[in-house]
């Protein structure tokens, strides 16, 4: 039995999230269907990161096991089966005990706001034409790095044993009419990035002071966070693994 990691990207607009769900259209279900059709074997993959409904990914990973030899045009053939809004970018040979979820060292997300109406950004960002204090946004982002318990920013009905996350990067950048939040952590809770963004936007609009922002974090109460920002602005950008784990396989174009 061989184990493979696959690197994928997707536009999440038409999906009820990443993870396979009963009676729901999901990204992982489409990937498993394509793999199963090509390999003529029932494939049940494991994903590295579970994105919510409508959320996009520049890079996500899954792993699967099979005894079936991979076709020389494996990449081309899987992409021919997959819908247009999902792409299989690369496939890697990995050790049989490697797990795409638990081997990941960190994940990076971006959330994009755009301040002037732009039909080309409609599916890739959040139209937010309001005056904001960028310095206050940056201060709030820096405050986030001083905490480790993010219970406040986890949606209810989540099955996790701990709300502790290690934040490595948290900052805002302004690029013309785009305002982008960048965050990297060893793990994320359900709805966490959108909760952070929505709550920080209240700080940027002057509706929440920095002291109140800290109080919200320390309350460990999700009703103190604002999760109302839409999903299309959120992208999973990168999943980081230990050096040397991933050995790419080269296929015929």
TrEMBL record:
User: Which residues does UniProt assign to the signal peptide?
Assistant: none
Question: Could you say which residues bind substrate here?
Answer: 109
Q: Which residues form the active site?
A: 52 (nucleophile)
GO MF annotation list: RNA binding; tRNA pseudouridine(38-40) synthase activity
Q: Which UniProt keywords apply?
A: Isomerase, tRNA processing
Catalysed reaction equations from the record: uridine(38/39/40) in tRNA = pseudouridine(38/39/40) in tRNA
**GO terms of biological process kind:** tRNA pseudouridine synthesis
Q: Where is the Pseudouridine synthase I TruA alpha/beta domain?
A: 149-242
Query: Under which EC number(s) is this enzyme classified?
Result: 5.4.99.12
Pfam families given for it? PseudoU_synth_1
Q: How does it assemble?
A: Homodimer.
The function of this protein is:
Formation of pseudouridine at positions 38, 39 and 40 in the anticodon stem and loop of transfer RNAs.
Q: Which family does it belong to?
A: Belongs to the tRNA pseudouridine synthase TruA family.
Q: What is this protein called?
A: tRNA pseudouridine synthase A
